[in-house]
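Hi X.,

You mentioned you wanted examples for the new student's onboarding notes, showing what a folding record looks like when two proteins sit in one file. Here is a clean example. The first protein comes first, with its sequence line followed by its structure tokens.
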Amino acid sequence: MKKIVVPVDFSEQSEYALRVAASLAEEHGAEILALHMLELNQAIVTSSEAFHPEQTVFLIKLAEKRFTEFLDKPYLDGIKITPIVKHFKVFSEVNDVATSNEADLIVMGSHGTDGLKEIFVGSNAERVVRNSDIPVLVIKKEQINFKARKFLFASGFKEESIEAFHKAKNFAGLLSAELKLVYINTPGDDFLSTSDANERISKFLSKAGVDIKVDIYNDYSVENGILNYGDEIAADIIGIPTHGRQGLSHFFMGSIGEDIANHSNVPVVTFKI
């Protein structure tokens, strides 16, 4: 892991993300690209009547000063920090910054009260997830001295998730974390017998070209199953697949991806299918 992008809006949640990124950067010798997006719009920047250019420059300088002060944290000592300021709220720019700098990961905070909503500069974290081609690690709570030792990836083990699985496997390798795989079996229409579940998993692993153990965990819902299994194995990170620009996806019905990110006590990372 060489570069980590962290969107910053000076909120408590963005500092949680920055602290986790600092722990990862320190452990892996990575650089942090701290990204701040101003709330200026094109009309303000170009207007010669309602807004004077010198006022625009003043606001930009004021935000940059606040950004510099925000990054003056003891836990960032010794870590290479590159501040990046964008003048508009364009969600795809987070991915553009990550891509142009060949970043390995985006770490961002979430309030966690209404799913993946109201993140940096009042935007929606889900939009960043939709646009991101690299993993997005969502941080809801403060994580002191975060260490990724055990990484849980939950899947329905259907062929469409093979790419996301490989990304998760590679990511676990980047973190030097133990990869744990789980299939959640629930009552109702999605229920599979043990033999049927093992057959699906076996076909998936064969197509993925890997030989790795997958646990089958029974619970009343997929969300509860993932969270409860994660607690049992003391997972440090929970991974889920996404359909990218189509929004947070899941191998099950309902907005489970958002619910897991909202209710999980550990960080959640998304991987585009």
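Then the second protein repeats the pattern, sequence line and then tokens:
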Amino acid sequence: MTSAPSAGDARRLAAASLAAGDPTGWFEQLYAASRSGQAEVPWDVPAPSAHLQSLDLPAGDGRRALVVGCGPGRDAEYVAALGYRVTAFDISATAIDLARERHPGTPVDYRVADLLAPPTDWRRAFDLVLESNNVQALPTAIRAAAIHTVGTFVAPGGTLIVLAAATVRTDSGGDGPPWPLTRAEIDTFAGDGLQPVSVDNVGAAGTTLPTRWRAVFTRP
């Protein structure tokens, strides 16, 4: 059985990037190092998120969806298979290159974009928004701004799904990322007029993230 990629490379690069005053530059560094065989991306696994799959999402029927921090595209492809017109973005150009290479002929519109400075026409433009495991990789100094921005993507009548670490196993080593979100932080996703539908604390046995948040919000 193949073991999961180690988080050590991500933590090493994140620490150096944060020390240099660049809280997000390490994402591109990590993907580029991984592509050259010099690092491992711990979340780069073949299957879509089990916690995403556990949600009873309706068929997309051509409605618009946005996947935040999509990496190589596993969750974006899952959402597209449900019938959504998916836009998926990542701050790392290498991650977007990998997504396009791994999914030739995909209907997903993969783009390089920054969560903290997104295209203005994305505001309230998407019927489904997926934020999976991105905010947990951001330091406190920029986390509140990221949480607020995620909510602005949701169209009237739309849904926001948030998946994030609630705890990290104490023997997993290092100081993060990820940095678990508190319940108070999860609740702040309900800004910009969003309302909570459900906030669940769910188990993830056998992983370095033994409990996780699975939250759903909507814009009336």
